[in-house]
Amino acid sequence: MTTEPTAPARREHALLDRAGPEPDPEPVGEVNADGDGPFFLICDHAGNAVPKALGDLGLPQEERDRHIGIDIGALGVALGLAERLGAPLVYQRYSRLVIDCNRRPEATSCMGEIADGTRVPGNAGLDERARRARVAEIMEPYHARITARLDARAAAGRPTILVAVHSFTPRLRAAPADRPWIVGLCWFHADRFSRHLLAALAEQDPTLRLGENEPYTVDMVNDYSIPVHGEGRGLPYAEIEVRQDRIATPADEAAWADRLAQALRRAAVTFEAETGRET
Ligand SMILES: [Zn+2]
Questions:
Q1: Whole-model pTM?
Q2: Are 28 and 141 in contact (CB under 8 A)?
Q3: 251-269: per-residue pLDDT in tens?
Q4: How remote is the CA of residue 71 from the centroid of ligand 1, in Å?
Q5: How far is the CA of 137 from the centre of ligand 1 (A)?
Q6: Do residues 239 and 183 lie in contact, with contact meaning Cβ atoms separated by under 8 Å?
Q7: Measured by CB atoms within 10 angstroms of the end CB, which terminus of the chain is less buried, N or C?
Q8: Which long-range contacts (CB under 8 A, 24 or more apart) does 266-275 make?
Q9: Architecture of domain 7-275 in this structure
Q10: For residue 29, which of 18, 42, 13, 38 has the smallest C-alpha distance?
Q11: In the predicted structure, residue 278 carries a pLDDT above the cut 80
Q12: What is the pLDDT, as a whole number, of residue 191?
């Protein structure tokens, strides 16, 4: 008589080890949860942690450290902005190669098999269960935290300007030349606050090369954060992209946090004057 081998007990989600001696990091980071003022900051690509269960994704460290894995410098700028503006910040600690929290889960680029010319072996042929675990354990808690905080602000009648902090690589591998912009702002329908921020940045430094919907546009079908939390809620927002070579050191991150904080404050004033909205 033969018996079926006993299947190991399956937890519903089985990606992050949160209880072992060296646990995987908590996906969601947050500072200044009770911060005052109109700004609410998010940073989708703040970290490049990889769950232990996924090893190294089949990539050397230098690949996981480049822009395909993380928005270099973005967390430093976002933390600096949170401090200077006294604003809440919610950020996400896992590599965008594990799951890109600014993509819809069904988008090909959410757990892409190729990123800027690099094949990602750890993302090859993922089955539904593996995809679901990344969504359920990393992406959903992050966006649920943002949703809860924005719901609470709305319930309290607090006006909110959503600010998404990103950084971009000066040059993609296949590109013939560097991208010229130092700071880019990206939007879909709601460009009104972005226009004020562009004006404030230009006033601050007329020589600054600003990108309008560069280096990207907001893709309402595949992107997540601005379509859902910004456009979806009808909030004024800014998606800020800073070129990574300008925020490559802690001193540079702090200098850009100073500049952006000043420009955001100025933009809030002119935005309020235009709309009569109290921020
Ligand atoms: Zn980003």
A1: 0.93
A2: yes
A3: 999 999 999 999 999 999 9
A4: 5
A5: 20
A6: no
A7: N
A8: 266/200, 266/203, 266/204, 267/193, 267/196, 267/197, 267/199, 267/200, 267/238, 268/38, 268/39, 268/161, 268/196, 270/196, 270/199, 270/200, 271/161, 271/192, 271/193, 271/196, 271/236, 274/192, 274/196, 275/192
A9: 3-Layer(aba) Sandwich (3.40)
A10: 42
A11: no
A12: 83
Q: State in Å, rounded, how far the first CA of the chain is from the last one.
A: 75
For residue 28, the cross-strand partners are 92
Phi, psi at 264, each rounded to 5° = -65, -40
Q: How far is the CA of 164 from the centre of ligand 1 (A)?
A: 9
Q: 44 alpha carbon to ligand 1 midpoint, in Å?
A: 6
pLDDT at res. 4:
55
Q: In the 3-class helix/strand/coil scheme, how is 203-229 assigned residue by residue? A: HHCCCCCEEECCCCCCCCCCECHHHHH
pLDDT digits (tens, 9 = 90+) for 165-210: 999 999 988 888 899 999 999 999 878 899 999 999 999 999 999 9
Ligand 1 centre from 267 Cα, in Å?
Answer: 22
Structure tokens at 195: 């226009």
- Looking at beta carbons, which pairs linking 16-22 to residues 24 or more positions away fall under 8 Å? 16/51, 16/53, 16/137, 16/138, 17/51, 17/52, 17/53, 22/52
Is 218 in contact with 226 (CB distance < 8 Å)? yes
Residue 275 has pLDDT above 90, yes or no: no
Cα 132 to averaged position of ligand 1 atoms, centre (Å): 22
